[in-house]
């Protein structure tokens, strides 16, 4: 049977990694001091950084332009301030977008005084139009909104879905674009990556098993391709938190 999808794994332990003391970060794509010509960009998707920031530290004010920048909060608190006068403390379930356009400056810090780090994913994509007016949005998604179903959390240039997939459950998603990318969030501790296991398949024999922190490049070979995502962690295994990006070439 013809495979409608092709998977290429991006393993967690092969990602770029830096430990700055206050920041522990993993880079799916080339970023800062980590540069790998095999992992520069995928469609408009340019950055997936899985960050853990210590309390009362963070990224000082710095500029951006011509990127769409998303923050997906996994746990803890993230304080956002920017040159558009936005000030907000983001928590679990928040998805914040800064459309940098012609240029903005912002800072992102962990304001927590109780010793709790913030774990979030910083995601950058390249906009379909340049020189846009800067903009800022925040949306909140409860765990219930993502439990064993796809929640569309971003629809701007790329489309991003999120799910909290219980062990033994399977979801499908029709992919309408040329590419997709899957990322399994490392919700277990950074030192313990023995968390959820996820199986990707196309229903025609193409399969791939991912662990927490792993990702997968997905080439879409058919206009009616379906991606099947199953949590195969075993009986009473952990829930898998998964992001799916539906991408143009």
TrEMBL record:
Signal peptide boundaries: none
Residues of the Pirin N-terminal domain: 15-124
SUPFAM superfamilies xrefs: RmlC-like cupins (SSF51182)
UniProt cross-references to Pfam families, sorted A to Z: Pirin
Family assignment from sequence similarity: Belongs to the pirin family.
Protein name: Pirin N-terminal domain-containing protein
Organism this protein belongs to: Candolleomyces eurysporus
């Amino acid at each position: 049977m013809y495979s409608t999808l092709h998977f290429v794994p991006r393993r967690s332990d092969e990602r770029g990694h830096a430990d700055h003391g206050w920041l522990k970060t993993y880079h799916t794509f080339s970023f800062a001091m980590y540069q790998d010509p095999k992992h520069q960009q995928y469609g408009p998707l340019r950055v997936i950084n899985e960050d853990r920031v210590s309390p009362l530290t963070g990224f000082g004010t710095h500029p951006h332009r011509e990127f769409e920048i998303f923050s997906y909060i996994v746990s803890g608190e993230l304080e956002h301030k920017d040159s558009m006068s936005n000030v907000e403390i983001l928590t679990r379930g928040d998805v914040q977008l800064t459309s940098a356009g012609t240029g903005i400056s912002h800072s992102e810090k962990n304001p927590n005084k109780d010793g709790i780090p913030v774990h979030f994913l910083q995601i950058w994509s390249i906009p379909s139009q340049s020189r846009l007016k800067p903009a800022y949005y925040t949306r909140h998604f409860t765990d219930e909104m993502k439990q064993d179903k796809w929640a569309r959390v971003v629809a701007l240039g790329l489309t991003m879905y999120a799910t909290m997939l219980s062990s033994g459950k399977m979801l499908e998603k029709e992919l309408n674009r040329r590419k997709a990318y899957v990322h399994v969030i490392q919700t277990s501790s950074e030192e313990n990556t023995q968390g959820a296991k996820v199986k990707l398949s196309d229903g025609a024999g193409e399969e791939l098993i991912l662990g927490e922190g792993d990702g997968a490049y997905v080439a879409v070979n058919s206009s009616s391709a379906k991606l099947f995502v199953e949590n195969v962690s075993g009986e009473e295994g952990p829930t898998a938190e998964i992001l799916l990006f539906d991408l143009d070439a």
